Amino acid sequence: FQSRYSQSREILDNTAEEVTSVVEFVRSQKAYDNVIGLGVCFSTYTFLQAQAQAIKQKTTLFSKLILDSCFFSLYTFIESMSLDPYFKPTEKTGWARHILHNILQKDFVQTIISNTLYWTIPHVSSINILRDINTIPLLFIHGKSESIVKEPHFEEIWNAVINVKSAAILTPFEHGRNINKNKAAYRHIVNTFINNDSNTFSYRDWE
């Protein structure tokens, strides 16, 4: 277990380093005034990790970050997928999904899965990293119908942001589906954030 744990953590760290390398290469090719990062789901963690490392090293990476369906933690993500598969059983899904769904609702099954994940999954979270991001504006786009990052977890994410200009847009959509549901509105929100102060919309519902 420890070997797999270490390997998983190393992969996460290497991914952030790759993001840093790409952004640094882009900046070296042209003197951009701003470089904006837009991450969805797990890539939001990668971007945050890369930005936190840049801040510690006192280097320039992103000018602003847009965090769509912001990642909370690897443990809660995998646990939610394991205990409640992405599908919900209906009359059309067949007996197999109903059986699986019913099995996963058993307390002893959930305990086994949760304990196994706890000891095998790296305990990485966006919360601690967000507390280190204090130099650039952040925009969160979060769906109220989220099945992966639920409302209490998003509240923790939002409350972890300190000493920066941040904004949040709440949509009625599911995890990672914001851009697909209304591309025109999504483009307008992103462009408004990029071109203006984040306080333009602060914390509000999708309109």
For the biggest sheet, the summary is:
5 strands, parallel
Flag low-confidence runs. none
N/C terminus separation: 47 Å
Number of helices: 9
Strand order of the largest sheet: 1-2-3-4-5
Which strand-content bin applies to the residues? Answer: 5-15%
Question: For the residues shown, what is the average pLDDT?
Answer: 80
What is the total tally of β strands?
5
Coarse shape: globular
- Derived structural class: alpha/beta
Q: What Rg, in angstroms, do the CA atoms define? A: 19 Å
Helix content: 40-55%
Q: Report the order of strands and helices.
A: HEHEHHHHEHEHHE
How does this structure look, described?
This protein is an alpha/beta fold and 207 residues long. Helix content is 53%, strand content 12%. The chain is built from nine helices and five strands; from the N terminus they run αβαβααααβαβααβ. It has a five-stranded parallel β-sheet, sandwiched between helices. Helix 1 packs across helix 2 and helix 3 packs antiparallel against helix 5. The radius of gyration is 19 Å and the shape is globular. The relative contact order is 0.14. The mean pLDDT is 80.
